[in-house]
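Reviewer 2 asked us to include a model.

Predict the structure of this chain.
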Amino acid sequence: MDVRDSRILVVDDDRAVLGTYLRALDAYAPLQADDGVEARAILSAVQVDVVLCDLQMPRMNGLDLMRWAKEHCQHPLWVVVSGQGTFEDVAQALKLGAFDFVCKPIQSPLQLQTVVANAVGHQVILAERALLVRALADNTLELAESHGKLEGANAVLREQQAMLDQDLQRAERILRALLPRELGPYDRMQINVAYGPSKSIGGDLYGAAMLDERHLAVYVADAAGHGVSAALLAVLFHQRLSTVDALRRTPAALLRDLNRGLFEECHASGLFVTAVYALIDTIARTATIASAGHPPGLVLRGAGIDRRLEKTGPALGLAPDASYGEHRISLADGDRLLLYTDGLIGAMGERAGSLGSILGAVSSDAEDGASVVDYLRRWAERGEDDVTILLLTASSGASTVDADQAPTFRTVPDDCPLSVGSAAGTTWVAVRGHATWKDAGVLRDACIEALDAGRGVIVDLALCTMLDSTMLGTLHELVTRGEPGPPFGLQSAGKEIRVLFAELAMTQVLCAVAPCARPAPRAMTELRGRSDATTHDVVLHAHELLAELSASNAKQFQPVIDALRGNPDGQATQVS
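Predicted model (C-alpha cells):
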C-alpha cells in the first residue's frame, strides 16, 4: 500500500468547516459526507483508509457511525474531531478504537495534515506487516538451522509491541492534560506534589482547588490496572468528579456519589478506583477526609507520624450501595497531611515499615514541603509502579508540582544468564534481565532434569524485567506438567510480569507464584543458552500452549505458529 493511494473520507455537517478540511487535505483527493448517514453509504460502497469525523452531527452522530463501522466496516482508522465540553465523547470514541483526536477549532492546516498523515502512515505499516506475515507463512522455516529466521518470527510480536507503545503515548497525552501543572497560591496553606507514571502512562490522578474563599479541596486517586485501560478509567473518574458540586457535599457524600456513577458506567471485574479526598477549612484550620480503599493518609506533627488515616470505605466502582465515613483533624501551624498512592510503599520495599521515622527525620529539618516531597520522590524512583505524592502543609509557602520527571527504573544487562543452585533438596533457577526464546530450552531442561530426579524447583524472577512469549509458554508447560512428583513454583514476580500472566489468561501460573519469597542459595552457577535441534520444537510448543488458553491468545500467536510450522497454506491472522 502506497501513501499516495490512501483514500480519505471527511465527515462534517458544517459546510464551511468541511470545505476547510477538504482544502487542507486536497493532496489525498478526499471523499466527503455531510453527516453519518451519507458517510455510512460511502463506507459500504468504497474501501476507505482514514475517516476524519465530527462527533456532533444530525441524523447519525460520530459515535453511532463508529459503532456501525466497528461491526460492518473495520478497515478504516478514525480521527475524531471534538469541540470543548465533549471530553466524555472523546473517551467513548477512544474506547471504540479511535486512532487520534483533534480539538476544535483546528489551529492550522498543518495540524490537521499531521494527524491525518500519521493515520495514513499507520495504515501503511499495517498493510506492510500483513504482506510480511503472508510472506513469512509462504516459506518453510528451519529455525533450528537459522536463528535469523526465528528472529523474523519474533519480529511480528515486537512490531505489535511498538504499535501498542504508540497507543500508550496517545493515551498519556490525554491523561496528562487532566493534571494541573501548577498549584496555588493558597492562603496559609502550601501543597507540594510529585507525580511519576510507570513507563509511559499510569492511572494516578491528583488535584487541588479552592471551592470558595475558605474551603480548599485536595484529592489523590489511583485507577486499577495499567496502560490505556487505567488511563480511560482515570479520565472517567476525573469527568465524574468535575460534575459534582463539591462545596455542597461532604467528602463522604462526594465519594458515595462518585462510586455510584462509576459502578453504573463501567462495572466490570478488575475496574475500580481508590481515592482519598480532603476538604480543608483554611480559616478554622480543620480537615475532613474520606478514603475509598486508598493507602492511609498520614498526619505529620513534629518529628514523626501523629496519626494514620485509614480507609473509610471500599474502592470506587465495586459495589453500588457503598457508604463512606470521615476523619476530622485540626491543623496547627506547620502540621502536614501526606497523601500518596501505593507505588510509594512498593518502591520503599522493606523500608516501608520505617516510613514514620524517615518522614520524621526529613520533615523536622525541612523548611518547606518541596524538600520532603523531593526526598520521597527519590525513593519512588526505585519502584516500577505509578507514584503520586501530595503533601499539604498548614503554613504559607510556595506550592510546587514535579510532574515532568519520569521515574528512573533499575536496569539489568540485556542478556539473560540463567543461574542454578541447590539447597535442602530444592533446585533454584534464577532468571535475570530480558528472558527470550534463546533461554527457554535451557530453563526447561534444567527444571525437568531436577523434577525427574525427585527435587522440587523454584524459579526466581526477582531480577527478571521481561519474558517473551516463548518463555511464558515454557513456564506454563512446567506449571501444568501434570505428572505426580515434587513441587514446581515461582517467586518474586514483579508487577509487569504478573500483568503478562493475567493478560494471557495464565491463571495456573499466577497461582504458582509464592506469596512470600524464600532466600535463594548463595552458591549459584550460570546456565548458558545453546542451539540444537530441539530449539524449534520448544518455541513452537510454547506458543501452541499459550494459544490454547484463550481466543485472544489464539489470534495473537497464530502468525508465529504458522511460521514455525512452515505451513505455506496457513493463513496468518492479523493481530490487533
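The chain has three domains: 3-138, 179-402, 418-565. Residues 143 and 150 are 5 Å apart (CA to CA). We have added this to the supplementary material.
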